[in-house]
C-alpha cells in the first residue's frame, strides 16, 4: 500500500490524510499574517482606538483619517507628499522597464550566442546573486560623485537597473527555447532585434513578469539614493520619507505610520497576486546547476 | 555544434546576404568569434554586442567596480575630502587588533545573527514548501501567498509596524498583551534592551525571509516527476522521511542551491534591521549592531572611509566563503 504515498505530492483534491499538513500550516500562516493584519487595521483606526488600552488587533470604526493626516503632515514641509509619491512612481516605472529590457537582451545573448568570456561572465553574475549593495555604499557614492550624478534624478535609477537575479532567471528560461525556433526566424530574414522582440520576448513572458516584480520591489522600497546621493528634497522618494518620521513612534503617530507602511506594501502585494502564476513558472527554472 | 555553420548551408534572404558581404571583412576579422557562434554571423556579433553592452556597463559600474574600489580604498586612509593616502594593511591590523567593538560585539553578533537566520530561514522555507506541496492547488496558493507576503514588507515599510508592536510603553501591542495576561508587571523596553533586541531582530528577519527562495523550492518540489516517487516506492522506500531524503532532495538540488543563495542574500541584506528597530546607530550597547552597521558607523558618521572599506571587504570575503561552502555542499556534479 505504501507505493501510493508518493503520488500525494501535488494532489488534485482534499483527502483526510492531508489534515496533518493543515494542522501545521494554518496556525503558522496565521502567525505570519498577524503583523500584516495589524498594519492594515492600525492604518484605518481612528484616534480614540489608537489610544485604547489594551490595544486591539481589530478596528471597529474604520476611518481614512490616518491617510489624510499623512498627506497633511507633508503639507507643512517644503515638499508636498504627492511629490515624493510621484518620484517613487516614476523611479519604479523606469527601473522596471529598463531592468527588464537589460536583463532579457543580455540573457538572450548569454544563452544563445557563444563568445569569449561568456562562461566567466555568467559565473560572475551568479556570484553577484549574493551581492549586498549596502556593503559597498561608500564606493558607490564615490562612483556617483565622479559621474557627476549627485542631485540628479537619474541616480535614483542607474544603480539598481543591473539585476544579477534578473539576468540569471531570464537566461535559464531562454535556455529552454530550442535553437531551431531562432534559426527558423533567421531564415525568414529576421535580425537579432526582431528575433529578440518578436520571438524571444513573447516566449519568456513569465520570466519577464518575475523580473518585473523583483525590480518593482527593489525600486519601490529603495532608499539608498535618497539617503546618500541626493540632497535636493524634491528628488527623493516616498520610501525614504517614511523613514524620516518612522523613528519617533508613539500611539499618536502609529496610525499615520501604519498608513504609510500600507501604501508601501499594497502595490507589491497586488502586483504579486496578479502575476503569481508567472512567477511559479519561472521558479521551475531557477535552479543553479 | 552541428548548427555552427547554419548560415553557410541554408540559403538566406537577399537583403541579409548583401549585408553579410559588406561585413565580410569584419567576419574574417572575427572569425574565431564567429566559428564559435551558435547562430548568426558577423552582423549578429555586432547586434549581440549592442544587446549585451548596457547590462554589462551597468553591472560593471554599480556592482563590480564598487567591489574593486572597496578593496583599493581598504588599503588607504580616506576621509572623503582629501585624496586617499596609501597606508598598507594598517586598516586591517587596526580592525583585528585595536577595534574592541568589532571583535567583541560586531563579529559575535554577525555570526550569531547569520548562523541562526540563514539556516533556520532556509530549512523553514524548504519545510513549508514541502508541506504546501502535499495539499491541493487552491489552499496551497492561498497559504503560500500568506507565507510569502511578509517578504514583500522587507525594508522601510514594516519598520513602523514593528516599532508599534514592540513599543516600550504600556500601549505597545506586545507589552499590552503580556501586561493583560499578568506575565509581566511593567512595560519592557523591548527595542532598547540588550537582552531582547537580538532575539527580536532574528524573529523579524526569519518572518520576512520566505521570499523568492521559498517560491523556487515550492516550484522545485512540485515539478518533480511523480513517476520517480512510484519507482522509488517499488524499489523499497518505506516512509516519507526516506521519500524526502532519497527522492525529493536529490531531484531539486538546483533549486536548493538557488534557495541557499537567496537565504544568504536575505540574511546579509537585513543587516540594518537592528538600527531600524532600535532607532539608533550604534544600537544600545551594540547589542544589535551587525557588520553592516559598523560600516555605516565609520563611513558616514565618522567619515573614516578607508577603514569602513576594510570592514566592507571583510564582509564580502565572509559572504564569498559562505557561498563557496554552500556550493561545495549543494552543487550538482556534472
How is the secondary structure organized here?
The complex is a heterodimer of chains A (289) and B (334).
Chain A: H1 19-43, H2 47-50, H3 65-75, H4 81-112, H5 118-127, H6 137-146, H7 164-174, H8 179-187, H9 192-203, H10 205-220, H11 224-229, H12 238-246, H13 251-283
Helix pairs in contact in A: 1-13, 3-13, 4-7, 4-10, 7-10, 8-9, 10-13, 12-13
Chain B: H1 6-9, H2 14-22, H3 24-29, H4 31-35, H5 42-73, E1 76-77, E2 85-86, H6 90-97, H7 100-133, H8 137-148, H9 156-165, H10 173-181, H11 197-207, H12 212-222, H13 226-234, H14 240-251, H15 253-269, H16 273-278, H17 291-301, H18 305-330
Antiparallel strand pairs in B: 1-2
What does this structure look like?
The complex is a heterodimer of chains A (289) and B (334). By secondary structure, chain A is mainly α. Chain A has helices spanning 19-43, 47-50, 65-75, 81-112, 118-127, 137-146, 164-174, 179-187, 192-203, 205-220, 224-229, 238-246, 251-283. Chain A has a domain at 80-244 and 266-283: MetI-like (MetI-like fold, Orthogonal Bundle), CATH 1.10.3720. In chain A, α4 (81-112) runs antiparallel to α10 (205-220) and α10 (205-220) packs antiparallel against α13. With 334 residues, chain B is mostly helical. Chain B has 18 helices and two strands.
